[in-house]
Amino acid sequence: MTTPVRYIRVKSTVNLFSPANRPTGNIAIIGAVTPPTTGTVIPENEPTLFSDPDDAEKRAPGDLGRSVALAMRQEPGPGLVFGVRLATSPDIADTLSKIATLPVQLVVIANTPLEAGTGGATPTAGIVALANHVKGPFGDGLERMGVAMLGKGDTDASIITGALNTDRMVYVAHKSDEDVAAAVAGTIGGYDPHVSLLLKKVGVSSDAFTAQELFTINGAEGDSTPPGGQNVNWLVNPALIPGEGVYLGEGYTGASGTTDKKYIDIVRTLDDITYRLKASLIASIGELRISRTGLRALAGEMEAVLEPLRRSEVIDDYLVVVPVLALFDKPQPTPEDQELIAKARRERFAEAMVRITYAGAIHRLTINLTFE
Description:
alpha/beta
């Protein structure tokens, strides 16, 4: 019997890289608990994951349990909902610091309306602490937004000033006795990041605002002008939608600056795409080289993340530019070009630029009817 000669032996193994996934609809709700005379309640300042609304009301009775249950009962519902019990002597800023590394994208303070202080005092301190918290900084993938409600029937949007004026916050005007902030957070968490929150159903009971009150909340709008917006959303039951229901009247963030992101879906989509790019490219760090082949592979990896988003119409278009790669592709690079290439290789630093065109949903239609 002869034995074959094996000059080359190859043993194949599978070591596929799978980028990390970031959830988009997880919620943390912070609130007070009213301990019953019997039974076990959740500990203070420790995030507790709930999977059942009834269990939340049983183990976190009071404001926290009711708010967690309300968020979970929205349709479509959020991803995960964490409840965090405030200490007996509550320190909201300290409790918020305890969830800095929690994988959530929306944060709410249970049953806490944003109200102006009397005699020139500052607005609700807890909501100010929430606004400061969500502005970060956070580690990769932990970016988040806060959701807060105005007092029942309040229509004054001028309260959104200072630290409260940020595109990381969402404010809602209402006429409800329920925790509207928790309900809206549950609604937001139930939709993909790129979906506009305009006219999305919110599972609460709320009386209607008058036309004048809506004008006060939203500001002026003309037949040929875009939505006004004063950083505050509102709850509405449009007559044009069949049946009864409460809907979110807009999808604004709490920002008013011209360079800020005005709509909730823009903030959430940007967070999502940023994380996708980082998660995909982390495997390239320390592997790809600053060469024509390596930089083309880098651009290809970014395109592999963005192209599916373009095809599914999450984004409208994109452009990936690697400046050093353009220098490599020159048929006759100048001495200055060669120095830039050499510098990139010495410093082991490659810059890339990604331009994304995002086509937002229609929020207003103007129709001119002419009868002749």
